[in-house]
# Entry
Amino acid sequence: MAKFIEKIPFYPYLIAIYPVVYLLAENIHEIEPGAGLRSALIFLGIAILAVTFGRVLSRDARKGAIVAGVMLLVFFLIFFVLYAPLYRGLREVQLSGQALGRHRYLVPLSAILVLASAFGASALMRRSSAKQLRTATFALNAISSVLILIPLISMLIYMGNKQFSAGIKAEELPPLAEMADTPASNPDIYLIILDMHVSDTALKTLTGYEDPAFSNSLREKGFYIADCSRSNYPATQYSLTSQLNMDYIHNLTDSTDAKVLYQLMQSSRVERTLKSLGYRTFSFETGYEFTELKEAEEFLSPLAGATALLTYPGVTPFESLLLQVSGGSILYETRDQLSQKMQYIIDAAYVEYRDRILFDLDTLPEIAAEAGPKFVFAHIMAPHSPFVFDRDGNFVKRRTPFTLTADPEGYDFYEFSDAYYEELLYLHKRVLGVVDEILAKSQTPPVIIIQGDHGIPRTAHRNAHYEIYNAIYLGGKPGDTLYGTLSPVNSFRVIFNDLFKTDYPLLPDETYYFDEEQGKYLQFSGAFTCP
# Structure
């Protein structure tokens, strides 16, 4: 083994893929390892070119590997560290009337530096002895192996914990209630989550905007609007897990293991109850693994063919992250100077995100025509940022790489409010159309919940990150059992009691947050925008 390590210089390839492996490890909680495959192959291609050039230049495999290693290190130093600040810093510096911060100058300069490093390394290696080269090869192979093993082991530990942790046993899942009665014809049930949709009161109080026509139209169709509804948790994974299990998480499990939470979401009390009654489950791809109910009988995706990773015609979300932490961020800042084809390539992650939303809105009415009964879970990632629609549904151009965790566009709250409201207006028009089609195509009047899963996180300082929109249609029946402060944890308790004559008591409508330091859920107390 030692002879192999000192004889075969494989470290340039490990150097090449290290940035990809490191970013995957840092974000493994949100993405699959396969997301970095294409990026790794691209960087391996660059390494092969560097090794080939180094070998031609030095006429020796081990010397060529050292030359390639130096070239790759200089390339990554420029790409990840120097290029973006140099570009921004030199944009205002002029020489003979020309701004120095331009790609036409910086790209050739970067190439010259990489080539200069190659020739410099080759010159230094010229008099190296065979023994020195063996020692250097052994040391560089060993060091690069250790460096890449650190993030790899981190990923493997996380994946192992996720795969092999005890989780929760089937018998420990929340029990199903006995049905005192079932309708002769079970109605379809739609849970439509509009991510980060705040209540009308919160919208007006926080942003100064309002769209009363949406709620008024829903009321005319027979919906009950819980005007002062609040989410039970300020984050999607907690809020929806609680809602679909009709209880607070601390009542469901003592564990804080992420796998337990995921299992409770994927095998929820609501879904299991409805399946026991002959319901067929429909779910959608969201781009957020936690809310993708992949075990549903019908798991719907708009990009089943286009998302083949190696052939995807544009920048993927992971590749956007790679660009975000490198000189690639300049592509977004100067997008107006790029060709339309190049703009599409760098916008591809936003286009995919947008297409998922449109696919959900287009497909929901089609499902209504399917033979029932059906439970349809649609987690629509709007009006959650990044905002990709204006009020007319036009594509909103972005100047930053794609991310779901926090909008990087640099909005202050006024700009954020403007963009949020624009997307909300378009979403409202589309949702009203979806509701009309569902009602028209349903043989039995359906149950429809249109709801936000949490409020706007950046309003937490005003205690408004729990304020959500919550509208419920009970098949045209009067909403006598509904009330203004109804929270998601009680939604299906009310619905099941009404439809199936179960005897679920209503829980206190409370709000909780997960305290990571204490490792437990704590009750939130504070004033809200809606009394």
User: Anything to note?
Assistant: The mean pLDDT is 86. The first strand starts at residue 94 and ends at 95. The chain has 17 helices and eleven strands.
